[in-house]
Design brief:
Layout: H1 2-10, H2 13-45, E1 55-59, H3 68-75, E2 80-86, E3 88-89, E4 92-93, E5 109-111, E6 118-123, E7 130-134, H4 135-141, E8 148-152, E9 158-169, E10 179-181, E11 193-198, H5 204-214, E12 220-224, H6 225-272, H7 274-282, H8 287-324, H9 337-363, H10 383-401, H11 410-429, H12 431-449, H13 452-461, H14 465-503, E13 509-512, H15 524-529, E14 536-540, E15 542-549, E16 552-561, E17 571-574, E18 582-585, H16 586-592, E19 599-605, E20 608-618, E21 627-630, H17 636-639, E22 645-649, H18 653-663, E23 671-674, H19 675-718, H20 720-728, H21 733-771, H22 782-799, H23 801-808, H24 812-816
Parallel strand pairs: 5-10, 7-9, 16-21, 18-20
Antiparallel strand pairs: 1-11, 1-12, 2-11, 3-5, 4-8, 6-9, 7-10, 8-9, 13-22, 13-23, 14-22, 15-16, 15-19, 17-20, 18-21, 19-20
Helix pairs in contact: 1-8, 2-6, 2-8, 2-9, 2-19, 6-9, 6-14, 6-19, 8-9, 10-11, 11-21, 12-13, 12-14, 13-21, 14-19, 14-21, 19-21, 19-23, 21-22, 21-23
Length: 819
């Protein structure tokens, strides 16, 4: 029996191909994710590990740097052969085009030494007045050995130096520097870390213990070379896991869409073989045997599709690594047994689960059905499904309504998101009922005003509401995700723009670094203030800090501003006078459970903290400072070194802009812009991320298109006799093709509209839960919605090409003879 069913399965190559494509794409997505993440981790693990350092002593993030005296004390530890200080500092490499290279200049400079961290690939070691460049940055800057290049320093100074050599770098934990100075004193006499080299046979653990006794554990951290190697491997694994988890969500969406296609395909195959299944039952096959035979078919198809998906996934992973890898990094392709097993473990069960409902239907075929040749099943009740969907929608609405406030706690935000997901799932369950409720009235209207093809197409689209719902559900999932994130992105963009407009005056000239969140030179603020025509110039000092309230500590962002300066947060409660205390974003205050009058402690670095009182709430959001404090409470060492933006105003805004541009004409580390420029910069990166997400979710829509083809093909097969009768009474082939196209467009348009409505609603809930905005304060992405609707019409037309062609070629006599 199983051989007979498998042989019959091979006779439906077109249907099988659609299933194979759908599940292959989903499995390929999973395997590609695994290959890329494993390869990235293997590449990081495979980097050269330095073996010349026994112990390192480093500063704790933001703490005071190590001094020469500390280095000398560490050098006197028994068993230490030498101790060298390693400094990192601001160094902006200027390219031939007069602009900074893409490397973040904050810690891009270091001093050259003879340790194993440098490996010369060209030229020689730099002497005082010379530099060596990382070969990747040198290539980007268009510099070679023997060239002179300009290096910008943090205090506004610059040095012109000869490029003596090019190097590659073996890092411990830091990003490889771009510039190595032949004179380490260019960066000062303090060190980011001290490296200890042990004498042969020395006890490294004893050296590390002695180093810990010599330093303050709150300000310094001591680690052995083995510890650093283990930490590097752990970071590589964590990075791989993080990227894998991020991308597997998109793979799950693609597989979900594929399940709808598989379910429709097997429904079609079972319907086509009703008579064969009935004959098997008539000659003694049990229900269990029939059901298991269909599941074996699904398993075989899943195994074939998984094999293709694994191969395609490995190829796409290699392509992705080759596209994203840098020229100087040898990417290690890692295809682990786990990635292959995950592909099969995903593809085969997903196919069998999707086919299970059809297997049960096949097992329920009665032997008497062998006397019939049409492919129809009795309609199934939608009561249980509708009740489940109604309960899910009601529960979701209750969860959302109960969290309508803006000042939500973390738990309430999770409840709101859960409510949105529940409504979404409820709509999926209610899709057949909604199809009847929406398409039947539409059909009656179009039947009165449309031609024969329109009437036939609309009527056929609701003939099997369950199957139509399955098809539109696949489209809805893909489009809803696109529209949800488009709504969230549009809302965040709108909020960012509003926040900047409310904080920064329209006439202000803005001075920023060309690299995001990199501090400007210490001279920039004073230089802007000295420009003729500038009457008010103040700075934004954006930084990441820790906030402690009622014993709980969390990460946040802060800016220290001058009272009466250009920057003024949009206050919604209390006062905006930072001289009286901190002005906090209302959502941030709700997250930490703080209110007006509460005290909070802002931890700036391991040795510096500020305790202040919340005197005002502002309408802030992520990406902008959540805490504003008075510059006067900042320690002197941070006032000049943390300036990220400078805002200047004067009676003549145009003259101020021209004067500041002239003042910084020769400074590639400075960008002069205005409020609109700040808004554009703040939103561009986010829009790029959204575009990538649209492309990834687009895979689900492509897979769903195969489901439309399946549904139309099944519809044509079930109506063989009806089409034959229509042809016999005079219906032309073009009319039949138009009717199928109308049916396809109606199905796609319905799925598109449902996906758009669900997506906008879920996007509004995400905006409310994640950003703490009112549920009704969201922005509708009209461009995305318009493109989605047009895309659905195109998908509907293209998906109908093959089924319409097949329907129009139906043999009239054979079709009429069908009973």
């Amino acid at each position: 029996m199983l051989r007979a069913m498998l042989r019959d399965l091979r006779a439906h190559k077109g249907r099988i191909a659609m299933t194979l494509i759908a599940i292959t794409l989903g499995v390929a997505f999973v395997v590609t994710t695994w290959v890329i993440s494993d390869s990235a981790a293997e590449t990081l693990r495979g980097r050269d590990i330095r073996g010349d350092v026994a112990v390192t002593v480093r500063t704790v993030g933001g703490g005071p740097e190590l001094t020469p005296a500390e280095r000398d004390r560490l050098a006197r530890i028994p068993g230490v052969a030498s101790a060298s200080g390693v400094a990192f500092g601001y160094a902006g490499l200027v390219g031939q085009d007069g602009k900074l290279t893409s490397a973040r200049p904050t810690l891009a400079g270091t001093g050259w030494d003879s340790s194993d961290r440098f490996a010369l690939v060209a030229g020689r070691t730099p002497a005082p007045g010379e530099v060596a460049l990382h070969e990747r940055q040198a290539r980007e800057a268009g510099r070679e050995t023997g060239d002179r290049t300009q290096i910008l320093l943090s205090d506004g100074r610059s040095v012109d130096a000869v490029v003596a050599g090019l190097f590659t770098y073996r890092p411990f934990a830091e990003t490889p520097p771009s510039v190595a100075f032949g004179d380490p004193g260019v960066l000062g006499d303090r060190f980011t870390r001290v490296e200890l080299v042990a004498r042969p046979g020395a006890d490294i653990d004893a050296i590390a213990a002695a180093a810990r006794d010599l330093v303050d554990p709150a300000l310094r951290t001591v680690a052995t070379g083995a510890d650093l190697a283990a930490q590097a491997q752990a970071r590589a694994d964590d990075s791989a896991q993080s990227s894998r988890e991020s991308l597997l969500g998109f793979a799950a969406v693609a597989l979900l869409a594929g399940m709808f296609v598989i379910a429709n395909t097997f429904s079609m195959l079972v319907t086509q073989r009703t008579r064969q299944l009935a004959l098997l039952r008539a000659i003694g096959a049990t229900r269990r045997q029939v059901r298991n035979a269909v599941l074996v078919e699904a398993g075989v198809l899943g195994w074939i599709a998984s094999t293709l998906g694994v191969a395609l996934g490995i190829g796409l992973g290699l392509l992705g690594l080759a596209t994203t890898g840098s020229d100087d990094t040898n990417i290690t392709l890692s295809v682990s047994p786990t990635s292959i097993l995950v592909g099969y473990a995903t593809g085969v069960p997903v196919t069998m689960i999707a086919a299970y409902a059809s297997a049960r239907r096949a097992a329920g075929v009665a032997p008497v059905a062998a006397l019939r040749t049409d492919g129809s099943f009795a309609p199934r009740s939608l009561v249980a499904r509708s009740i489940l969907g109604g309960v899910a929608v009601a529960a979701g609405v209750v969860a959302i309504v109960s969290t309508l406030r803006n000042d939500l706690s973390t738990t309430e935000r999770i409840v709101a998101m859960g409510g949105g997901i529940a409504v979404w799932l409820g709509v999926l369950f209610l899709a057949p009922v909604l199809a009847n409720a929406v398409l039947r009235p539409v059909g009656r209207v179009m039947s009165r005003r449309g031609g024969p093809a329109t009437r036939l197409g609309v009527r056929n689209s609701v003939r099997d509401s369950r199957r139509t719902a399955a098809t539109t559900s696949a489209l809805m999932v893909g489009l809803a995700l696109v529209c949800a994130f488009a709504t969230l992105g549009s809302s965040i963009t709108s909020m960012l723009s509003s926040s900047i407009q409310a904080t920064v005056p329209a006439e202000a000239t803005v001075v920023e670094s060309p690299v995001d969140n990199v501090a400007l030179g210490t001279d920039v603020l004073d230089k802007a203030r000295s420009v003729p025509g500038v009457t008010n110039a103040s700075a934004d000092r954006y930084m990441f800090v820790k906030v402690t309230h009622n014993g709980s500590t969390s990460q946040t962002t802060m800016s220290a501003i001058e009272p009466g300066g250009v920057i003024r947060p949009e206050v919604v409660a209390g006062t905006g006078d930072v001289r009286r205390g901190a002005v906090v974003g209302e959502n941030q205050a709700a997250m930490i459970g703080a209110r007006l009058g509460d005290e909070v402690t802002l931890v700036l670095d391991p040795t510096t903290s500020v305790t202040t009182t919340i005197v005002g709430l502002h309408k802030g959001m992520e990406g902008r400072p959540l805490f504003y404090v008075d510059l006067a409470v900042m320690p002197a060492k941070l006032k000049a070194t943390t300036v990220t933006s400078v805002y200047a105003t004067g009676p003549d805004a145009a003259a101020v802009r021209a004067g500041i541009e002239a003042a910084f004409l020769d400074r590639p580390d400075v960008v002069v812009t205005d409020r609109d420029g700040v808004i554009k910069e703040a939103t561009e990166g986010f829009q790029l991320l959204l575009s990538l997400m649209y492309a990834l979710f687009g895979a689900a829509i492509i897979i769903a298109a195969f489901g439309v083809v399946n549904t139309l093909a099944l519809s044509v097969m079930e109506r063989t006799r009806e089409i034959g009768v229509l042809r016999a009474v005079g219906a032309s082939r073009p009319l039949i093709r138009r009717a199928i196209r109308v049916e396809s467009v109606v199905i796609c348009a319905y799925g598109g509209l449902l996906g758009i409505l669900v997506g906008i609603g879920f996007g509004a809930v995400m905006n409310h839960a994640m950003m703490g905005q009112s549920l009704w304060e969201f922005s509708v992405p009209y461009e995305i919605i318009g493109a989605a609707l047009i895309g659905m019409v195109v998908v509907g037309v293209l998906a109908a090409l093959w089924p319409a062609r097949r329907a129009s070629r139906t043999d009239i006599l054979a079709a009429i003879g069908t009973t």
